[in-house]
Amino acid sequence: MNDHQALWQRLKEENLVEKDNPSAPVSSTYLPIRIMQGFAGWIAMIFLFGFIGTILDWSFNDNEILFIMLGGIGNIIAFFIFRNNTNSDFIQQSGFVINLCAQLLVSWGIWELNNNSDAFNFFTLFLYQSLLALIIPNFTSRFLSTWFAMLLLFAGLAESGIYFLNTTLVSILFVTIWIKDEQWGKRSNLWSPIAYGLAFSLIQFNGFFIFGEEIYSFFRNYPSHWITPYTVWIRDIVIAALLIYLSQYIRQQLKIQLNSRLGIAITASSAALIILGHFITGLSGALLLLIMGLIKQNRLLISFGITAFIGFVSWYYYLLSMTLLNKSILLLVFGVCFGIAYFILNKLSSTQKESTHKTSTTRQSAWLLLAPLLIILVLVNANIYQKEGILKNGQLILLRLAPIDPRSLMQGDYMRLRFEIENSLLKTSEEDKYNTFDRYAVVTLNKNQVASFSHLYEGKELEENQVKIQFKLRYNRIRLSTHAFFFEEGTAKIYEPAKYGEFRVAEDGVLLLNNLRDKDFKVLGYNSP
Q: What's the pLDDT at 224?
């Protein structure tokens, strides 16, 4: 008896179904042939649209309305292809490519038609993608359109100076749709891909896995408006309300009294998570994914939550606006909250009817909850051990500090830094300054270990007084290991005469800032993140 048959048998025992187990349809086409047919559909449609696009570019380069009309026709063709629900993989994949190319034509036409208002274009394309998510009857197309819509909404709000409302709106939609998944019924083909698209968007906005640098650039390149500071509080209030709602939903499902010990523990955990979410930006999305996954016993949602949480921790570890001690305290409190959540899972298993399958499922859920914590602890400690090794055994070099805006020099308990070598590195990358890549440079050390730029590393053997260092080019900005130096609050004047930054360089070229020195190479103090 396979899993499908076992599930059907359990449903019959619970009197939820009456008919015999329906036989699952088996495709008569060999799987490799189906893959080849689908791939052939992609190749055929890409070449076809490439040919059509070339003709349009030559003949109708300035006709934006035509692009939009052709894109709309492509969407209609894709709609009828998917609506016929053909079993041909070639036709299905052809419809998918037609739909994507049509979206490209519409986006191109809208952008060329109105190139004076980026915000208007973003919001227009957001509505367009939202409409496609509702209309196009295909799981993958609806999933991608939902994701595209959330990205466009984010960009439009950022262009308008409202940076945090997108996460708020995505969270509301995510909870509203997923909490009522039992009511999807025959509309599951519509709501399921949209729900997963929203879940994927939460992962991205928490971990910045895809287009992370592009997303982060919106926070740097667009001006703030009067409403911008309030969006943070709006986001926190809405997320707090959602967490309270989910915690009370769990309590009601388990039939736990609010004034009982477990009820108080659930309420206290919710309050702690709300407070942590305010201080730790990006945590709330991972929490919503994890909690919803546990409520619905959905392994994919739990996996999404774990992925978002790992991405959040990897970003949070390098957050320069908070000391390592404060990070450790907050993560400790977060661990306590997870411990209470584990206790609640045990309570859930004891209050429900016992069966081998249910016990196994509960244990799996508990391990899914604890596994990310164990993985994170191992990764974080391994990373710390590696960094400490570099600080202890790495090659010592000194980089000259460059002038920086005095208003940005001191930021509470850390100092923003620039280094002279960045100007030389940027000049050597002039042709690619608006791209993103990681490269290596060779610096030459004088008798005082002060480094000066020599040339870009080409894999050749270095001289005795030369060191290879890694640098990153991000949209006309050079990044070394860090541009922030932490110090004890109230000691800023000690570091005002700083002229050099001491780095330790690993064998692979990675740099770590160790301390600052004055013009006489005297150590002023050590970096204390």
A: 57
pTM: 0.58
Supply the DSSP string of 149-162, one letter for each residue: HHHHHHHHHHHTT-
Give, in order, the Cα–Cα distances in Å from 96 to each of 76, 103, 158, 198: 12, 11, 30, 20
Report, in angstroms and rounded to the nearest whole number, the Rg of the chain calculated over CA atoms. 28
**Nearest one of 148, 271, 282, 163 to 211, comparing CA atoms:** 148
Pick from 449, 428, 448: which is nearest to 439 by CA? 428
Place of tokens 């894999």: 459
Domain boundaries, the chain: 396-526
CA distances from 310 to 25, 185, 255, 313, 435 (A): 39, 33, 32, 5, 27
CB atoms within 10 A of CB 232: 14
CB 372 within 8 A of CB 309: yes
Name the 3-class secondary structure at 425: helix
Q: Are the C-beta atoms of residues 156 and 270 closer than 8 Å to each other?
A: no
Tell me the HSE value of 208 on the side-chain side, using a 13 A CA sphere: 15
What whole-number distance in Å separates Cα of residue 14 and Cα of residue 59?
66
Degrees (nearest 5) of the Cα angle 40, 45, 51?
130
Which tokens go with 395?
């090659």
CA atoms within 13 A on the CB side of 324: 10
Where would I find the beta strands (DSSP E) of 59-176?
none
Determine the Cα–Cα distance for residues 466 and 450; give it in Å rounded to an integer: 11
Q: Provide the token pair at 337.
A: 């909250």
Q: d(Cα 514, Cα 526) in Å, to the nearest integer?
A: 6
Low-confidence ranges of the chain (pLDDT < 50): 1, 24-29, 209, 219-220, 352-362, 405-412
Distances in whole angstroms, Cα of residue 153 to Cα of each of 33, 44, 220? 40, 32, 17
Kindly state the tokens that stand for 516.
């600052």
Task: Identify the helix (H) or strand (E) that includes residue 291.
Answer: helix 283-296
Q: 116 vs 72, 197, 377, CA distance in Å? A: 23, 30, 49
Angle, helix 212-221 to helix 188-207, in steps of 10 degrees: 70
Total residues found in the chain within this entry: 529
CA distance 510 to 526: 18
